[in-house]
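From the shared-data thread, chain only:
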Amino acid sequence: MSAAVSVGEAMQSLDVVDAGRVKRLLEGGIKIPPQPRVLEELRQQTMRKQFDVRVLARIIGQDPGIAAMLFKVVTNAAYRQHQPFDSIEQILHAVGVRQTFNLVQAISMINLGSIKKHQLVYEAFWARSKTIAQLAMLIADERIAVCNIFPDQAYIAAIFHDCGVLLQLQRFPTYCAEMRLEEPGRWVQLADEDRKFNADHCVVGYIVARHWCLPEFICDAIRFHHDISQLQNHVSRTMVAILQLASELYYREQRVPNPEWDLVKLEVLPELGLDEDALLEFADIITERFHAEPSMA
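Structure, as tokens:
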């Protein structure tokens, strides 16, 4: 696992335009959230040549909120062969140490705390993100032989991919209204966001992901999750494809149109080894598995 990356170091990988945007946001008061102590302790332990799973379990168990959410996350059907889980130590053994660490990172982002304004939007944001993350885990599990993306990787990418929206919401008093986030089915349109705020939630999310030491291909997928054509790295493209299909299935669940799907599906589906005819059956499989598992809300 990677050592900590400073915000300044993360910004060095951006081009001049995006680095300038992030710099202005930071100067304007936007705060890149620090990693919780539990993640730092876990990282220190796992970077040793030898580590004790019992110690890792105790570290996770020190935070009751994270521990409780971890048990909820692993009820996902992607881990059906290991269920039920009776202890954190069992999760670490069955799911894997690195995989469990990824899940804890994602949970830590969810548990960072609420915002004072736009409480309903905040709650709706995480309900949306967690549903997309559950769907992404199932897509990854079903297509693992084709995509070589694992459920924990899909989950953490889905939780982080839109986190920049929350930071923009805190930075700009009119962001919620201008982006019409209180309307059912509405989501941030990059062209509108750029025109009105000279800011890009994808780039902000990328900086958060780099600062939190997420794998590089996941960071790149977060940065370009609305622009898959910009990605040359196959695994990053595949991750974006999983995020885009999970988002499409989320929109179908909500019975509202997805304004992005028709623009991206011709690049998304081949990455997953699917075509439009195969998608019909595949979507039914994912939806059926999604509704068969307990809620992770």
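Residues 7-33+114-292 form a domain with the Hypothetical protein af1432 fold (CATH 1.10.3210.10).
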